């Protein structure tokens, strides 16, 4: 087990399952102590923390709805009390409710933008003071191939994930001189509960003939946490679905 991220504190939003859980475990395997944020899945968050502890790292589960500014403002202080100041932030939390142009409502649009995009802004703003004080930080945000080619979920999801890329570009440009990098990961279909709820997605539609795994996405997140020269980039890991 590598320990090159030893001493670093990571906060992973939506870290109780799926891609978030895989990233939390991979960061722990690389030496980080991990705060697992979740909204409602208490048992899964506790199980993720226990798996992190079995790797010999500290872990804490923190319940907060990151679409709510008042709850987000408390997050870094909670992480600091339990583990230490946030050095690595993974903006992973998201929702994907399939809607067409004809069926989407304004409420669904607003909710998706709040959870998938505004939350990344809120949590990053809250965590930045710790990174700036240390002169070191990593902001890693989960976008989607839908940001680049529309996808199958709907306009609300595609727009929210495209916004992640723009937000990443801004933070990267503004923070590079302070030792803080900002990058996005744009996965294609990944074998998670979210993909299972979208029957429109079929493994045979991908050039590689299969969905990705959460562990494959997590490998990229660890790379970005380790590397201080990669910033402002969108890392496409999509089985050839979108060629850049």
TrEMBL record:
SUPFAM superfamilies: NAD(P)-binding Rossmann-fold domains (SSF51735). It holds the Pfam family adh_short. InterPro entries: KR_dom (IPR057326), NAD(P)-bd_dom_sf (IPR036291), SDR (IPR050259), SDR_fam (IPR002347). Residues 8-188 form the Ketoreductase domain. Gene3D superfamilies: NAD(P)-binding Rossmann-like Domain. It comes from the Bacteria. Belongs to the short-chain dehydrogenases/reductases (SDR) family. This is 3-oxoacyl-ACP reductase. It comes from Geotalea uraniireducens.
């Amino acid at each position: 087990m590598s320990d090159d991220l030893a001493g670093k504190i990571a906060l992973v939003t939506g870290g109780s399952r799926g891609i978030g859980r895989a990233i939390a475990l991979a960061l722990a395997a690389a030496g980080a102590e991990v705060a697992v944020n979740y909204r409602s899945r208490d048992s899964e968050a506790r199980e993720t923390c226990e798996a992190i502890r079995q790797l010999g790292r500290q872990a804490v589960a923190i319940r907060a709805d990151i679409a709510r500014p008042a709850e987000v403002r408390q997050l870094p202080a909670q992480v600091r009390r339990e583990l230490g100041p946030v050095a690595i932030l993974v903006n992973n939390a998201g929702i994907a409710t399939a809607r067409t142009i004809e069926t989407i409502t304004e409420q669904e649009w607003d909710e998706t933008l709040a959870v998938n995009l505004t939350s990344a802004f809120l949590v990053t703003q809250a965590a930045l003071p710790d990174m700036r004080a240390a002169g070191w930080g990593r902001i890693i945000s989960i976008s989607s191939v839908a940001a680049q080619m529309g996808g199958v979920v709907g306009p609300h999801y595609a727009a929210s994930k495209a916004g992640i890329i723009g937000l990443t570009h801004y933070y990267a440009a503004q923070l590079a001189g302070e030792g803080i990098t900002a990058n996005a990961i744009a996965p294609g279909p990944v074998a998670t509960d979210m993909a299972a709820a979208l029957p429109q997605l079929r493994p045979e539609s991908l050039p590689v003939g299969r969905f990705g795994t959460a562990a494959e996405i997590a490998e990229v997140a660890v790379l970005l946490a380790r590397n201080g020269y990669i910033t402002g980039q969108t890392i496409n890991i999509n089985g050839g679905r979108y060629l850049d």
